[in-house]
């Protein structure tokens, strides 16, 4: 793609968001970069000038999200690529997690992405083009102990995005769920944790044991992967970032199907014999 595109990237002040913002600017495109505090983006403003519009934004504030997307459209004419990257990872067993922690997790990871997606869609539909890149996780496809609420937020994002993809394909809009495996972003250290209950020490141990099977990927390499997805004429609905995920998913889905097959007699029991069939 040779024309200059406008990207709207949330969570742009650190981790993947910061790396991707810089990479997109180096690629020659324009970026509206949002974060709760955009002061960390000043070096990029100094370097790229008017091609970067930093906006302080709390993605859980629907009205503020709408205003930010309007500002992006006024500055650059429209949003071509939306990257919903803002999020945090609440660690804790289901019983350990507090009500406010659970709501905050859903507000940022799911509702934040929902609000930005809804705000960007009218312009994309009008232009009959657009890319929506949802940063999910391998935890959007499987669920590990001690991460249930975090992964619930990603499973919600997955379902919404898969439905959305079918709804907007007619308007030339592509939706892709990016599923990072394991990268040293500092996400866990910067995220809240539930108050540990000794009764669930085994759950945390199981989580760490499972994570040891993945080799951390190179953060910098994800930028080329992101651009490859954004440039693809027919991007996938889902793409794994990193290795080891396919094996984990083969095990997960095979186990899921085997369990359903084993209990198919109960499925048939529940079906009954309607109309004598």
From TrEMBL:
<keyword id="KW-0560">Oxidoreductase</keyword>
<protein>
    <submittedName>
        <fullName>SDR family NAD(P)-dependent oxidoreductase</fullName>
    </submittedName>
</protein>
<dbReference type="InterPro" id="IPR051911">
    <property type="entry name" value="SDR_oxidoreductase"/>
</dbReference>
<dbReference type="InterPro" id="IPR002347">
    <property type="entry name" value="SDR_fam"/>
</dbReference>
<comment type="similarity">
    <text>Belongs to the short-chain dehydrogenases/reductases (SDR) family.</text>
</comment>
<dbReference type="InterPro" id="IPR036291">
    <property type="entry name" value="NAD(P)-bd_dom_sf"/>
</dbReference>
<dbReference type="Pfam" id="PF00106">
    <property type="entry name" value="adh_short"/>
</dbReference>
């Amino acid at each position: 793609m040779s024309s200059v595109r406008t990207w709207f990237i949330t969570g742009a002040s650190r981790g993947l968001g910061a790396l991707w913002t810089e990479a997109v600017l180096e690629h020659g495109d324009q970026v509206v970069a949002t974060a709760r505090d955009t002061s960390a983006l000043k070096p990029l403003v100094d370097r790229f000038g008017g091609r970067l519009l930093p906006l302080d934004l709390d993605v859980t504030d629907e009205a503020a999200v709408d205003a930010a997307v309007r500002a992006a459209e006024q500055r650059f004419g429209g949003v071509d690529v939306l990257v919903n990257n803002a999020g945090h990872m609440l660690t804790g067993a289901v019983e350990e997690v507090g009500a406010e922690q659970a709501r905050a997790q859903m507000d940022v990871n799911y509702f934040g992405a929902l609000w930005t997606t809804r705000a960007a869609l009218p312009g994309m539909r009008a232009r009959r083009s657009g890319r929506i890149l949802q940063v999910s996780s391998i935890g959007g496809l499987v669920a590990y102990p001690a991460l249930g609420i975090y992964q619930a937020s990603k499973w919600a994002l997955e379902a919404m995005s898969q439905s959305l993809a079918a709804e907007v394909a007619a308007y030339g809009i592509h939706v892709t769920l990016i599923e990072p495996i394991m990268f040293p972003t500092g996400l866990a250290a910067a995220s809240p944790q539930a108050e540990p209950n000794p009764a669930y020490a085994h759950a945390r141990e199981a989580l760490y044991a499972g994570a040891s099977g993945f080799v951390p990927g190179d953060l910098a390499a994800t930028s080329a992967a992101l651009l490859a997805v954004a440039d693809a004429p027919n991007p996938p609905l889902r793409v794994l970032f990193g290795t080891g995920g396919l094996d984990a998913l083969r095990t997960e889905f095979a186990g899921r199907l085997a369990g359903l097959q084993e209990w198919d007699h109960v499925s048939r029991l529940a079906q009954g014999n309607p109309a004598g069939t």
